[in-house]
## 1
Amino acid sequence: MSSIAGGAVFAIVSLLLISCAVLLILRHYLPLRTTPGYLLFPVFLALALPIGLILLVPIDLASSLKEDGEAQGIWLPERVVLVTWRIAYWLTFCLTWFILPLLGEYVDSGYRTPKDRIIYSLRSNARYQLITFGCGALGLAYVFVQYGPEGKYIKPLIMALAYCVGLVQAVLLLGHGLVAVPRYLLRNHGIRLQRLQTKAPKVKDKLDDAVLELQDLNKHIDELKSRKRGLSKEMEDWIDEIAEGGRYTVVVPASTIPSNHNSRPVPAVITDRYIADTARRLNRARHKVVRFTNEWQHLVNEAKGLQQIIDSYATKHLEPSSEDLTILSRATILTPYTRYLTYCRVFPTLRIVFGIFLALASASIIWSELVKVVAPQLSVISVTVIRHTNGDPKVGFGGQLISFIWIMYMCTCTLSSLQDIKVWGNRALVPRNTYYESACWYSLQVAKLTVPLTYNFLTFTPKEVRIKTIFYHFLGQHISFTPLGKGFDYIFPIFILLPAAATLFHVYGRIKKILGYGMFEDDDEDSSFGTGTWREGRQLIEQEIQGRAHANSAGLTNRVPIDPFSDQPQGTHREPTIYVPPGEDRRTAQRQAERLAAATQAAEEADENFFSEFTHRVRNTIDNVERPDWLPEFGKRPKWMGGVNDNEPGNQGSASDRHRSNGIGRFFGAKKEPSGGRIRL
């Protein structure tokens, strides 16, 4: 495609497609009609600009390697590419470090007026901005000592520091995602029903706790309303708005409230700050209920679908589920038999094939990170993207397509790791009901991580190719203008081996077992210790399915379903409603108590050492040997010497108990509790 017209048409069409794709993503996670424009537009830019940067790197490669005005593939004039890089980069920079952090705190402030929200947002971000400017001051001092106090180094320093901060987070997340994504496909190629059943008690407990927390806050709001008589008119209206507002309603019978349920007391003096804090906690609690309700519904629906797939192995027929909203399940061209073949034969095979393919791609990325400094000609990414014609490196349309796929896979692995990390608090992406602060935070991460990943991909190419690109002249030379920045750019990505190895060998799971807390959700070792078993999860899922069937037959809805293809939930109410049946809290407490007792017993058994277990087995052998009748009487004091009669009440079995408790087992850590006739296996 030697003409510039082809590149211009491709750029315009790509811009339209990117805009449509981002709007569909926003429509899936946010209600577009009710989301304010001041939030929707920055989030839209934070998603659209990074996708444009990913598409701009292949165009930059082809445009920089053209000779005599001719290029292979899609290209644009260097001036157009440079202006595009400037606009996209600086907009992304402002969104990452200034606009989205302030906007996230603005929508999460809980205050009523825009002025109070802005003041709260500035105060909340003051520490974050001070840390940022402090790092910038240290870097500026280093540059001034190295090169002298000149103002021309300020811009390169800002760009280099922003790149380094993003690169640290990107490498850690990328290393985890390169292992987690292909392993997810390989482990879930078959029926994973038991894994879902093991996970069900944990999700159900989180949902119950979130409902109780929201119930507590609703009760606190009612108490606050009863105390509003002596407040100003503005504060009374504000409290009424807090009580009536919100997108989630919880219907809980009064009988389900535990007897020890204590509400937070209302202070004697009610201030604006206190009301704002209450509103903020209430909004977060509503979001938490929405989040875990969606997660629980998704888990139940998935388990129900997997059970139908298991049942179809006998009949060779699979009927579509009424709760499955995917396009494939609604397709009328699939007969029950072809649907059975699709879900039971085709999909598992495709998951295995794609899992192996992505595992090879992940290994290629890690290998390219390791050899890009010592032997760049051995980089798999460089070999697949760049081809040499008469000794000159060229990037054609095929190379551009492959490079786009490489960058997209790196970004996908990095962003997928955000869902596995547990240190982000209550932030989550919920279809149709994502909290505004969570939307700002996730879009901020997309904008912050894309630039380091795209330039890190550019470092996989040979030096003679990299230094010709506009991206290198715009950003790369500023990163490498100091020896420290150049060394960091080339050496630090090697540390991708650490998170990759930690994920591959389940280090996070072992750390969680030792410390009781882990950074990543490690689902590879399905341990039900202390969190319920798969049988309990199966019972919970069956109860939920039976409850839905009973509610539908009675003309009621347990929970209002959320249609991902509409801006409002279905049903007569605008707000989705969750109904907690009576006794749910008691069942939850009983379930947690049973799991705690089982976990305590398992922990006590696990604490026994080898000598204690050996003593148990020897004692069982000796106790179960048939002893002669005269042996118990041997060595016993006669009655005239003060001996005890075994036939007296309260002394039955005392000799055997003393024999068990005073044996040699006490020297090896044996417990001094009677076995009650039980045999240690």
Note: Residues 182 and 356 are 7 Å apart (CA to CA).
## 2
Amino acid sequence: MPVDDEDRWAVHDRYGNHVYLTRERWLHILARRPWLEPFHGAILETLRRGKRKQDPLQPRKYKYYSRCLGLSPDYNHLVVVVLFSEAAASSAEWCPTTTR
């Protein structure tokens, strides 16, 4: 897993956006959903290769989706929410600030 430093994991999504998951966010996820602990790599892979949908009310918010085997029988996809910052990397691109 690419690690920028000890406190975050960085990836590029299929659209070329730099997205990172902070250790603080990861611990927050596990506090509410401890069964996701073995899926850390799959979550990063969802950010790398998953399809995404933009939130209609918050244009900086996206949900990344990917099929995931091994989840409980009622679930078959991982959904990762990313909120990009208002600061632009260039005139037409958003820079990510957090992944939750």
Note: Residues 23-32 form the longest helix (10 residues).
